[in-house]
Amino acid sequence: xxxxxxxxxxxxxxxxxxxxxxxxxxxxxxxxxxxxxxxxxxxxxxxxxxxxxxxxxxxxxxxxxxxxxxxxxxxxxxxxxxxxxxxxxxxxxxxxxxxxxxxxxxxxxxxxxxxxxxxxxxxxxxxxxxxxxxxxxxxxx
Length: 141
Fold this sequence. Notes:
By secondary structure, the chain is of the alpha+beta class. It is built from 4 helices and 7 strands. The longest helix is centred in the last third of the chain and has 22 residues, at 119-140. Residues 109-117 have low confidence and may be disordered. Residues 11-117 form the Coenzyme Q-binding protein COQ10 START domain. This is SRPBCC family protein.
């Protein structure tokens, strides 16, 4: 069974700021609460270390599309099935919208429960809120 989520957040920061923060994978653990580390292997591959309720997971993901200040897409090449895209939308000179879409295959009871109860969406919204704080702080500085 495959699950998906689609969430977005409006940010008081230009697209360039939002893009720069998300495009640097080393920033991901700062706003993705379940991501412990992201290690770049080369220009398109990186290793994720996740800490989820009831399970720690590692996987290798590949960037499948990178359009500066527009979109970043990825899919896993090793480990869990996971694919996603984050898109960046200009709302004004000083504000943007970031939209996150993820497709994944839940494994085990806890992950299936998270998918069924929309806990995954709650977590995604929390993480996007953390990203908003980081981007707005960067834009103000």
